[in-house]
Amino acid sequence: MKRTIITLCAVAIGWMCQAQIPVYQDETKPIEERVKDALGRMTLEEKVAMCHAQSKFSSPGVPRLGIPELWMSDGPHGVREEIQWGSWSNAAWTNDSCTAFPALTCLAATWNPEMAALYGKAVGEEARFREKDILLGPGANIYRTPLNGRNFEYLGEDPYLTSRMIVPYVQELQKNGVAACVKHYALNNQEKQRWNVDVRVSERAMYEIYLPGFRAAVQEGGAWSIMGAYNKILGTHACHNDLTLNRILKGEWGFDGVVVSDWAGTHDTREAAMNGLDIEMGTDSRPDKGISGNKFRAQDCYLGDDYLQLLRRGEVSEAALNDKASRILRLIFRTAMNTKKPFGNMDYAAHSRVARTIGGEGMVLLQNSPTKKGEQPLLPIDPSRYGKILVVGDNATRRLCMGGGSSELKVQHETSVLTAMQAKYGDKISYAKGYQAGKTMYGSVEEVEQSVVDQLRNEAVTAAREADLIVFVGGLNKNRFQDCEDGDRQSYDLPFGQNELLSELLAVNPRVVLVLVSGNAVRIPNPDHIPAIVQSWYVGSELGPTVVDVLSGDVNPSGKLPFSFPVKLEDCGAHAFGEIGYPGDGVKVEYREDILVGYRWHDTKKIPALYPFGHGLSYTTFKYGKPALSAKKMTADGTLTVTIDVTNNGQRAGKEVVQLYIGDDKSTLLRPVKELKGFQKIALAPGETRQVTFTITPDMLKYWSEATHSWQAEPGKFTAYVGSSSTDIRGKVKFELEAPL
Ligand code: BGC
């Protein structure tokens, strides 16, 4: 009896305390009820205040109600250092260094969604530990031209690969109570003229190529926020674009999160009010009002006082404001006010292992042949074959986590290739810089004097004569006009005289391994003269050890290219129509290659790439059996399966990415020869065979019809291609779609 009374009292006290908590603070209540409750308590001014930044990387909550601010950070390869409240200078903290994870091109090259999950989890733990609510990433823009300075922040040229890789990243990141902010929505495929270029693109190319990655992030990944891009789309800036934000993102896809503008990507109050933007970030001047510099205050934002005036005068809808505020509240409840979220951590050792694992799976062995008949290929490096190994190249020592723009990271550590080679091979290693790329600079380019160029080249060539093996670590870097924001590459060539240096090295010593550190394809003038080439990407903190894992054979390479490597720039669809196709005429850029992006262009136009999409070698080899289909015909509600045996018929354990492409054999409108619709990465011991099964669904046969604004498929014959790359097809099977879809 006594116990019952005590329990009843406890329940009553609990209920009374509970009753004092406002609904919006009560995490046991459904989130929509909480949003409604909070919204009902807010003034017009408080709602407007939430819609624009208060500092470089934060937006206000509602202090009167105890609703906290939102804190954001770049993204996407690690958590950026702290920036000052009102300027771009760093805040000079000493506890804000991070792990740099591999650039997203490298993640895409793993072709392994499990790697994307590991990535999202680890970067999310660091973001949470640093008390961020939004991580500005990942990027989902499609690789359209190898000149784009920001391709390294994206997931390659294929919408299916992008979709499969972005979903686990977003899901695992958000489990930390940190929102992904998927960027840059949409059609932000060049940095040149990025602030204003008007992208003219067909509806079909949007739906088939440029939007699926974003859609997957939203609908399958459940992304809580998305960032509008700088460019215009069909005449209107992407940050306040009715078509892409209201109609597609929030309408068709049912996105319930927040649209954040790119920094200073907002240009008009009425459009921002009505066309789907929720939080305006980064505006620091108002050219239309002559306000800039120290005079600019938070309320001068387009969605600040001007917005309030329009609302007060009834010139823009209050319902749209309530929608913005509801979305922002929902986001705050999911992140900043989520008391159930984990604490995160800064476990550098564990996260470095994650970075190294992802990096190792992403490196792509582009070629590997012997220098003489009968000899072993140069890779993996067998130390007993080489007394002296010469490492050449600026990228062997450069701090590559620096530069590149907003994705620059202040790292807890970064191990260079040279350091890692010395750790592995001791005093066999010597170094010659060979070429000089100048300081890491975002805003300008440092010229290197000719006498320095000559001296460095001569030193390297002299050392090369004495060496048994040369490991040339070159490629691009994060300087302006390389892999860097707010400017594109000015040439497809390798910069800083690397081609000339390579030719001179090869002339005195043919045993050259080229390690290409870049986020982009580059022109390789005489690829046949270079025995081994590894595409190493920007791997982050663990670049050196990861490169050495692959060169030494401790890790058997299993990465595959997430984009095509054209022989020359004109072979790429974006460059086949002159300047109007890229960079545009100063006002607009026309995507005349339409849906034929990347390998879709190479295949359909029969223009071979130097290295095709999906290409990547291993230190072992894989034999494919004959593909078998479960049935010859597909019905509208049915699926088919394709099964194939894959055997590791080499000497080493390795991983293979088995790729499924589908093509419509005959169609009334243009379709690519084939499109990626499935892939599986499998690990095989020497001699082991595994059966791989792909399911083909009706959706995989469809194209976007501009006539009906919907997905459709024509009846007739289709081919399923199974291969080791988009051109190394090991088997084909045909099936028929009986009725239109
Ligand atoms: C970039 C974004 C970045 C933002 C904040 C912009 O210049 O385009 O990707 O998240 O700055 O640093």
Topology:
Blueprint: H1 2-20, H2 31-41, H3 44-50, E1 58-59, E2 70-74, H4 104-110, H5 113-129, E3 134-136, H6 159-174, E4 179-185, E5 198-200, H7 203-210, H8 212-219, E6 225-228, E7 232-233, E8 236-237, H9 242-252, E9 258-260, H10 269-274, H11 305-312, H12 318-334, H13 348-362, E10 364-368, E11 389-392, H14 417-425, E12 429-432, H15 450-466, E13 469-475, H16 498-508, E14 512-517, E15 532-535, H17 543-552, E16 588-590, H18 599-604, E17 622-624, E18 628-629, E19 633-634, E20 640-648, E21 654-664, E22 675-684, E23 689-696, E24 703-705, E25 710-712, E26 716-723, E27 729-737
Parallel strand pairs: 2-3, 3-4, 4-6, 5-7, 5-16, 6-9, 11-12, 11-13, 13-14, 14-15, 19-27
Antiparallel strand pairs: 1-2, 7-8, 10-15, 17-20, 18-20, 20-23, 21-22, 21-26, 24-25, 26-27
The protein binds beta-D-glucopyranose.
